[in-house]
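Suppose a colleague, Dr. K., hands you the sequence of a protein chain of 133 amino acids and asks what its three-dimensional shape might be. Before reaching for any lab equipment, you can write down a predicted structure in token form. Begin with the sequence itself:
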Amino acid sequence: MHVKDAMSTVVLTIGPAHTLRQAAQLMAARRIGAAVVLDNDNSGIGILTERDILNSLGAGENPDRETAQTHTTSDVVFAAPDWTLDDAADAMVRGGFRHLIVLDDHEPVGVVSVRDIIRCRSAATERARAVPA
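The predicted structure, expressed as tokens, is then:
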């Protein structure tokens, strides 16, 4: 299986000036754990995750004043749609993160998460069990 088979193509894109509260509300409404942060003036493409927001809140920071720009990971590892799920999982383990932005022609086309990989592998295992030997 490939990243394109597992990734979510509903990509939440926000700007660097969004507050963490705004980002959290948008992420919660879409039931997703990461937002792609587009900052054409500075770092390009970054990612803001639920963990970034949680760390900020845990540090006592105000989610109405803190911006995505301050908490965005900008040294992102990107995946390609034709990566295998093993490639994606290996990158996540090596980097210690749970989401990969999927780029096609330098444009974000999806996000793949550990949960997406588990879901696909679990479905493949169930299909294999259903096939009589």
